[in-house]
Write the structure tokens for this entry.
Amino acid sequence: MKMKKTGIIMGIFFAVLAALILPTQIAFKARLPKTHGSLNLPGLELPVEVHRDKYGIPHIEAKSELDAMRAFGFVTAGDRLFHMELLRRIANGSLSEVLGEAATKWDILLRKLKLRKTMDEFLAKNLQNMDPHMINLMKAFYEGVDHFVKTQPLPPEFVLLGFTPKKFELAEGMAISGYMALSFAEGIIADSLFSELYADFPKEMVDQVLVKHTKDRNLITESYASNSKPLNKTIARPTQEAWFKDLTEFLTEFEQNFGLFHGSNSWVLGPTRSKSGHALLANDPHVAFSNPSVWYEAHIKYPGYEIYGHYLPLVPFPAMGHDMNRGWAVTMAEMDDLDIYQEKIDWDKKQVMYRGKWVPLKIEKETVKVKGKEDVVIEVVTTPHGPLIDGTEYGKKDKHLAIKWSYHHPENDVATAFYKLAHSQDLKDMKEAIKLAATPGLNVSWVDKRGNIAWHVLSKIPLRPTGVTGETILEGWSGKHEYLRYLTIDENPHLYNPKSGVIVTTNYYPEFKSKHPLSGYWQPSERFERISDLLATKEKWDLEDLKAVQNDQFVVTADEHLSILLGSLKSGGSSQKQKAVEILKTWDGKSGISDVAPSLYYTWTKQIMKEAMLDELGEDRYKALNSVADGWHFFKTFIKNANSPWWDNNKTSEKETREQIIATAFDKTLKSLSDQYGSNVSSWNWGRLHTIEFAHPFGKKKPLDSIFNIGPFESGGGYFQVDNMSSKRYKDDFHVTLGPSTRRLIDFKDASVSLGILPTGNSGRPFSQHYDDQVRMFLDGKYREQLLDLKIVKAQ
């Protein structure tokens, strides 16, 4: 048989690639952690047993809490040491020390946000007054981690990077709450974007875009800039250029490597709404997909205590958990707990004007170590509001923008909050626990064996003066935009044991009658509406029923939008156009991988936004608007407003109408899909467009992608659906970037066997059988058991 030259070359290439990868695989497999037999762990008072179920979840039996934590640290390091290292370097702002110059821009921003510094200062002030037993538990956990580092083969990432982890510290684990809250970057983008829009466009036009609130915006009445050039008289804005362009890119780059928290679903049902007569819990927090998966699952048991938890691997206390008698879920609350202040600064005197008086700036030098390069020395400048983000690639130089963020609140005792939450036995305990933390802003939903269901927001929520919102940049020098105080835990949104027997949280505006205005970066309402509608279809539910709700792929807006969109098209046209129209007319609203209609709908709605808004906004502002939830909030009202001035293209002499823009967008939709997937409309399956790959930080380049990455796969679901498999709306592609980070379903009639799933696997170790053993089930909407029954575990 003769082979073409290209075939020979490709054959040689793959042979060489196999020759390189195969020995690597063998070497890496040899470094997997020991999961059978006995090991000596210094510091244990009594033996600890660790059992693994068939998905690699550790079940730890100890005689004391200290022994359990020490063993837990050792076991977690075995599965997630490199993940822990990345998390601690995010907290410390020291990624570039091992990842090189490409990560320096991230480190500079992370240092200026003071994630680690804030917790160092908190511990210096409060350590002596904190629960010494809890502190000893955290230390025992890190001692277990450190012993693994000293005695066991390190994961392959450390071998490739050529370093050994240092000892882990308390402040690093506590600072991870700042990492969870980094989704605040959406707030920086939105606040800055609307400040610029109000400066450059008529207020009536911008009010159409900012639709989530109706009251008047607070406007800065005094113009000020360090270069003495006048700003718009009505609002402070950093620059004519969209300065937040790089921050939008930061969100994209950072979350693809490390995962950021975005939306989430949870609902709890009381005993009157369940077939078993006991409370039910459902939860799926939405996080940008990364590899390893964000959560590490473990079951810990010792006399008087038991928990099955979902952990951020650097923190020994679970963010979500349950036992036989109680459990809790979390979703992002999306409260506006961050504001941007423009400051007046006298650099010669190192002073900033605050409440009409000049006060000292706090200026600290920090050194960022960069692998293979010289150290980078930066100044972290702090005003009474908080740190300046000038001098980063995400804040323009000399614009004097400071962020006031609840993470920096002096009473942000997040470690104690999560420790106490994990030990809470009733609603009172839960409330006492969460009031100790300021961030990350979370909806905490509670259920217990006694039939209680509840929801309470964990957050330090600022109370602003009347007429002042956090939707634009605030005035830092006069005092008139300063917070009055923070809401108390009893003033935070909450709901206990409602008559309906149902509580749903989906990052939407909280259904709570507050005495004070609540502002936030609320996510689209569709998930809340769909879950509420589904739960209203019948009175009694069980876990099997709830599987269908949690994996629902229905597009709530389809009928309403398509009645307008299709009505804007002229009849007739090419056979391709007629086929596409017919598919949309007969669409049942579902978005599975084999459906064609979602490919048309999502591409068309993106194209409409581009046709209507790109001319006025420009590329950077267009990208910013569609990187935050405000973009979709606007689209839903915009599409119904035929008289909106945004329909007109200001680059043409004629005045375009809604119908013209919609028709042009449809033609471009057909061309785009034809160019990418061929002319046959019936072949434009959603799964061909809508793909997901779980990318490891090392998998960005070949051939390491074949070792570390998982996928790509076709995916159903989509943005604002219950199955919230989302892509970036400002991008032309539909590569899934975020979605459910776990799915949990628990019936408290018998919580010994509940249901759950992770996107990839519980292990972060490539070549472990548990690195990707859940991915196919996850994508297919299936579940595995979450076991509290050790008899079942030991029998596996």
